# Entry
Amino acid sequence: MSVEEQLIEIAKQGKLLTHKCTSCGYLHLSTAYYCLKCGSKGFEDVILEGIGAIATYTIITVAPAGFEKYTPYAFVVLKLDNSDLRISGFMAGIATPADLPVGTRAKITGFDERGIIIEKQ
Ligand SMILES: [Zn+2]
# Structure
């Protein structure tokens, strides 16, 4: 399985695959050759619970081609609990800011053509 396939399988379980620097502990979302923080080359996979709070988002009312059927939706940034990591994903059914106050608890629930799927908890 490629790293991308692993990420997808793990997202479908509601979790997030990250790459932790074995030297300084910094977490990377994507594979890197060198740690972005300390430059070390050693990494280990760490799987985090995909649960956190909405940090920010953009409501999409005019979707790109192929995504019209999903509108309205929001492209959200989820700050994970117990980590400084922020991941972006897709949340369905968000039409106005009243639908999604910043800080709303949310979690990863899957992965498909839209990318990482995030739902309110
Ligand atoms: Zn490091």
